[in-house]
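User: Please predict the structure of the protein below. I'd like the answer in structure-token form so I can feed it into my own downstream comparison script.

Assistant: Understood. Taking the following sequence of 308 residues as input:
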Amino acid sequence: MIPKASSIAATVDNIFLFIVGISVVLLVAITFLMVYFVIKYRRSKNIPPANIEGHTLLEVTWTVVPTILVMAMFYYGWVGFKEMRTVPKGAAVVKVTGRMWSWSFEYENGRQTKVLKLPVGKPVKLELQSLDVIHAFYVAAFRVKEDVVPGLNNYISFTPTIVGTYDAQCAEYCGLRHSYMMAKVEVMPEKDFQEWYSANGEVAKAGVVEKGLTGEELLDVKGCLGCHTTDGSPLVGPTFKGIFGRKEAVETEGKERRVVVDEDYIRKSMLEPQSDIVVGFPPIMPSQEGIVTEEEMEQIISYLKELK
């Protein structure tokens, strides 16, 4: 049984059960009438047909009753939706970034993680953005699912109510490794969350040192390991193992050539990934301009140099 771990979980469940209940009642009633009429008016009884002119009460009933039911569904759905879109004062803001094929989370103090950490009993606003295609951020235990659309700043708000670790996933098919696009959500006691939040920096300025991320951690947080590996096996993109100094066959403006992977090549590949496409791999990498800072890029390049 999936727990009701957020302030809106009970509302969503009640709406779902209300709609399912109506659907079941209608299914049973319609099926019963179909079977009843088939038996009652079967050919072997030789019942003479009659010309039916109409029945005003019946026609009004099957117009009014479905209208009332549909409006009731709309009303309860709107109540739940409004609750998710109303951000309480003082809500913690976390920026959720979706990309093929991973999630990353950035907090108000600049800290970046692969695990979404939230304080129990405190409202939160998740600001959703996509770097490439349409995704959908879905946490079953919270009963929240919201589209993450490139070029559109979307959001969702709720309050976690039960301490624990939950699964988050993408609920919109987004490509080859869609099923791998998962993350963990950790709901912590408020005291533990505040200790973690403070320990990981009141970041006054952007920079890798203040955020405490190594090159390897940055590859994970920035979603690079969703397409590349560090163990030598190719994935959607070429492996990072031994990449620095390696000769790669690339396609540049429709022509194939060989290049040596150096600092300039790595930097250009991150900022202009469609310029030199490695032969044998799809050109799906989005530009990291504005996503990876110069300091973070230096940290990543230093790590790749050592990844022999």
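That's the full token string. The first strand starts at residue 92 and ends at 99.
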